[in-house]
Design brief:
It is a single chain. The chain is built from 12 helices and no strands. By secondary structure, the chain is an all-alpha fold. The radius of gyration is 20 Å and the shape is globular. The protein starts with a helix and ends with a helix.
């Protein structure tokens, strides 16, 4: 009974940590236009802010994604939490777009390390439920981060720090809590012996399914990135609302609807889910373009929800 309770507490803790990492990753998104207005930088630098996070996240996943397999989950989770807390402090003290870029780069490394180790730790505890949890956490966590930053910000530069302060406090608590976490793998080597060369490894049993779904995954995540970067600006042009609300509303539609449909997709067969998703991407994208053409916010958001949520 005691072992079961400890296992359940461990699952709740690592799941909460994973959600917090993803919430932090999306928290800055609704605020970009406010930063842009206050610091007067163009869309070129805005693109850099978006891209630097994705690049550092990808590099971290490629080089550090398997680190916890060698030295254990707990050390990697702890390192990721410390780096993420550092990123929150950079966000809080940022005074220019340069520091915003630095914060996002640091955050990308932390999220790459943390998501890989935490996702593996969740699977270690329950293969079946863990896979389902990992499938919904990205969108659920990002929706939480967007909701948090949107709720706390009212267009005031001083208020931009509020969400980061809340997240920093959460990460500090989790740094303490990680020491109570049980280890689920036996460390094999020291850090010095870990192969850090970039690599991608797909188990042979999953390669066929991976290759079949790979084009759809690339299309959906590419489309999601396009929506995340452009939709707030489109909504700001079409709707007379504060930047934080248009930015937050846009990303909430993306992440919230994707989270809801991921829960639904867990009840469908993979073939049905893949076919429905591929169809929805086409229909939703066409609906989005029509919404832009007729300057209709409801049509635009409906198309976005269908394309990204079903496609995800």
């Amino acid at each position: 009974m005691g072992h079961h309770q400890n296992s359940r507490k461990g699952m709740i803790l690592v799941t909460t940590m994973f959600v917090t990492f993803l919430a932090a990753s999306s928290a800055p998104t609704p605020l970009y236009r406010i930063y842009q207005d206050h610091w007067h930088f163009g869309f070129g630098l805005m693109t850099v802010v978006f891209a630097i996070y994705a690049l550092s996240l990808m590099l971290a996943l490629l080089t550090l994604g398997s680190l916890s397999d060698y030295i254990g989950r707990k050390p990697v989770i702890l390192m990721a939490l410390v780096i993420e807390a550092t990123a929150m402090m950079v966000f809080i003290s940022a005074t220019s777009v340069t520091w915003l870029i630095v914060a996002r780069a640091v955050q990308g490394v932390a999220t790459g390390m943390g998501s890989a180790a935490l996702g593996a730790a969740i699977l270690d505890r329950d293969r079946v439920r863990g896979a389902q949890i990992n499938s919904v956490i990205p969108f659920g966590g990002m929706a939480c981060g967007v909701a948090l930053s949107t709720a706390l910000v009212y267009g005031d530069l001083e208020a931009l720090q509020s969400a980061y302060e809340v997240l920093l406090a959460a990460f500090c608590l989790q740094i303490t809590a990680v020491f109570t976490l049980g280890e689920t793998v036996s460390p094999r080597v020291s850090v010095a012996a870990v192969p850090f060369r970039p690599h991608i490894e797909v188990p042979e049993i999953a390669r066929r399914a991976f290759l079949q779904s790979f084009p759809a995954n690339i299309a959906v995540w590419g489309l999601s990135a396009l929506y995340m970067s452009l939709l707030p600006s489109l909504l700001r042009d079409l709707a007379s609302a504060p930047p934080a609300l248009t930015g937050g509303g846009a990303v909430l539609v993306l992440t919230g609807s994707a989270f809801a449909f991921c829960l639904l997709a867990n009840r469908l067969s993979p073939q049905v889910a893949l076919l429905a998703g591929a169809s929805a991407v086409t229909v939703g994208t066409a609906c989005t373009l029509w919404g832009v053409e007729v300057s209709s916010v409801p049509v635009l958001l409906s198309g976005t929800a269908v394309a990204v949520s079903f496609g995800s």
